[in-house]
Structure formats: structure tokens, C-alpha cells
Amino acid sequence: MAEKNFGHLGANFQLSLIKEMIEDKKFSATIIEVMDSHYFDGPYFRYIVQQMKELYTQYGWIPDYETLRQRIMQENDKTTSFTVHMDTLKSIQDHVVSGSEYIKDTAMNFCKQQVLKRELKTVEKIIEDGNFEDYKKIEKIVQDALQVGVHSDDVRDAFFDVRSVLEKDSRVPIPLGIPGLDNLLKGGLAIGEFGVVLAPTGVGKTTFLTVAANSAYNSGKNVLQIFFEDNIGSILKKHYAIWTGLSPDDQLENPDDVVEVVAEMEARSKGGLKLLKYPSGTITVSDIKSKIRKLKTEGFNVDMLIIDYVDCLIGEKTGFGEEWKGEGSIMRGLEAMTSEFDIAIWVATQGNRDSIASEVVTTDQMGGSIKKAQIGHVVISIGKTLEQKEHRLGTMTLLKSRIGPDGIVFQNCRFDNEYLNIDTETQNTLLGYGEDKVKAKADRIQEVRRLAAERKENERLEKLKKQGKLEPSTTFEDIVHGTPPPIVPDPDRKIIPPDPEPLPDPVTPDPTPVTPDPISAQMKKMISEEDRKKRVAELRKAPKELINNNNN
To answer: Is the dihedral of CA 484, 486, 490, 493 positive or negative?
Structure first.
């Protein structure tokens, strides 16, 4: 019975596998040593794989398409085989891979089985010879076979080349165009890093990602912006709004100005900006990889990938009811792309229902799998209350950062979805934000109590005024600050002038001076003062008791 090879999986599988081996250097370095050209069906696939193995053995690196073309030209010298081999290589390069992870996993498992099958034959022969002292040898053979496809290239000795670790950081950040966040991220999200934006629906995920894409382009980077729910015209107008300062509606009335500014921005930047719309729920991580490789063959090397939003992707092999498990796999695949393609990636994800009314959105309000937050190097949330939406404000929070400090809140920052203007002038910590909320609540309670006390006292004063016991001009402030209210005279009291007294007879003045009685004058003064104090105390008594009761 003939042994199975990749031929039983079809030509499409073999094309995809060879393409992955040429383009995914890390995967190729893992599998090429255990790969045999005879695992492929047909002489032309075998020829390409054999050339790859020989070049890898000789030079220690995986050849690219151009190197393989030169090798074919060198060995075949314009013969018929030359034409067939060149056509085969072109077919591999132009082939669109579907299900990348499945292809690589299947190929690796097949090669491991072949190695294990071969080594088990050796073990079987040792056992048949009956030499029990060779048990350690058998154990080593099996262990080595099981280690096929496992490399230690990424293992680093902690004591190796310490000085190189202390050299200036070679990190290459790409600015977001939002100063507050760029400062905390030490210049922005860098090549090889993965950022996640969390926000409920309708808050500003697309605004944030478009600002990030626009800033990266303005910095001279090549940007691929993928989206699912907006149309291309809408996203283009958002970019035009950033460059021109005109809203999408105003752009229609000033087309000449828009064309002029956009042309100027194109000439000014050394980068490129490409937009790509996909239907939601139909695209996998492998599809995005294939598109990036295709763009690379066309001379467009992506520096930053924007995905709006990750919830619209589907997993490679997601079973029924395993959507959350698939989300973790998708995020792992995207994170791996940062090192595979040397790019920075920003993705957005939806918040759950609890996040809709939250001013500060936290990771526990993330919809779906929490792995989306765990995998991201940077996680930023956006929240808006109805009042903030009305005033074009928002609250951004740096929830997680492997780059620098996190837990920073930008409260009530400018967040304009129409003009795509995001400005972070103030910042706070999550702890400080919580303390401010508690203080604001306490101040509000105190203010409500004060207003209630003032309202009740005003009602009491109005009642006294109607009774004629206070002047109409008397206010609550007069009572609080201790200004004695004027006494209202009794309107029913009739004032009868006294009868005129007869003029006294002239009296010769006594030369002896009359001394007033000091005791009598002091008593009169004390009586008058005591009466006034009692009256004021009566009027003050009620408001003081009311205020004290409210404070208690």
C-alpha cells in the first residue's frame, strides 16, 4: 500500500503550503528541516521544495521568489523545464491562500508523524534484538522525534550581551496624533505592538482609528485601513475633514478647496494610505495576511494595519457556540502578525450593554472574550455620557500599557466625531477620578441640604412678613448674618399728642452742678439691651435649628 503524501489533499493545498514556506520565514525555518520534497505530488512542486531545502542548507536562510527564479535560470538554461518551473513559481506567488493556520498545522502534523514513524522503525529493530540495555537509547530516539518542529531560536540567555540591552531603545513608534496619549505611549504605538480600542456603539471607534491612520500616513508610514460597516466614501471624507478642517457636509460645498488640500497632503507625505472594505462575518486573519502579502508584491509594504472592528472577523475553525473561543484565536493571530510582518496594529472592539451609559469604560465592560484585553499591548477605552455627546466631549482611559504608565483618565476631553478632532488637555488617574466623583457627590448633597434649609427659612420669613412682624425688605441673609430686623410699629396703635404743659415760672438757676444718678442710667441701658437681644434671638432661633437639623 502506497504511503500518503500531500497529494491526497489536492494541488490547492500544496500551492498554499509552498507559498507559506516562502513567505512565512518563521514557519519555514521550523518545518523545512523535516520537510521532504517527496511529500509533494508531482515533479514540479518537488523541484521547488528541493531547491528551497538546498539553499537553506547551504546558506542558512529561506530563499525568496527572486532567489528561486535565479536558481531556476541557473540550472535549466531556457529549456522546456525552465518554462514549466518558472510558471509553477509564478502560480505559487499569485496563489491566494485560504485557511493559512489550518494548512500550516496540517503540514506540521504530517511531517511529525513521518519522522515519528521512521524513528519507531528503528526502535522496533532495537526491541527485536532484545538488548534491554538500549532502553535509554530508545527513550532518546522517541524524545527527539517528539521535538520535531520545536526551535529554541527565541530562547535568550539572561547573561548574554548585557550591554546591548542597555543601549538606546530601537523602538520605532508611530504617533497617534493625540498628544496626551502619544506622551504616555512614548511616541505612539510602535512596530511589533498591538493596540486595542474599546468603546460602546456610536461613541467614536471609527473616529479614533481614522485619526490614528491619518497621523501614521502624515508621518510617512504605509497604512492599510480595513473596515466593515462604513462605506469608502464616508471614510475618505473623514480623512479629508482632518486635512481641511471642513466637515463632510461643508466639503460638498467647497470641492475645489478639498481637492487642493488633499493633493498637497499627498505630495507632502512619503507614505501611503489604502482603504479596504470587507463584508462583515466573512473574513479571517489568513485572508488579511494574504492581502498584505499581495500588496507587498505590488511594492506597498504595510507599516500600520487598522481594523475597524475585530468583532467582524471570523475564526479559522470556529465551531457552533464557540464564538468567544474564536475571538481569542483571532486576537492571537493578529498579535502574531505584528512580528511576522513587522507592523503595528490597531483594532477596535465593542463594549457590552453596561458600557453604553458609562463615562469611564473598563475592561470588564468589553463585549465577548476578555482575551481581547489580555492579548493587547495597549488598551484604550472611550466613554461618553449624553451630556458629553451634546457638547462634543468624551472620556478616554488608558486601561493597559506595556509601554509606560496606565490607569490614566482624560476626562471631558475634546472628542468631535464630525471634524475628527481629539484633544487631551487634562488628565487624571482612575483613583483620582474616583475620589473626584465621591467629592462631587458629597458637595452635591451638601448643596441640596443648604438649598432646602434656605427654602424653608424663606417660607417662614414670608409668613412673618404677612403677619406684619417683619419689614417686607427683610431677607434670609439678614437673619444668617445677624443683622437685626427692624421692628414694625403696630398700625392699630393711635398716637394722641399730649396736652401742652404750661410754661414754668422762671427759676433762678442753682450754681451747684447736678450729678446724674449713675445706677439709674446703667439699669436703663441694660434693660434696653436685654430686650433687643431677646427679640433677635427669637428671630434667629428657627433658622438655626433648621440648619443644624439638616447638617445632622
So the answer is: positive
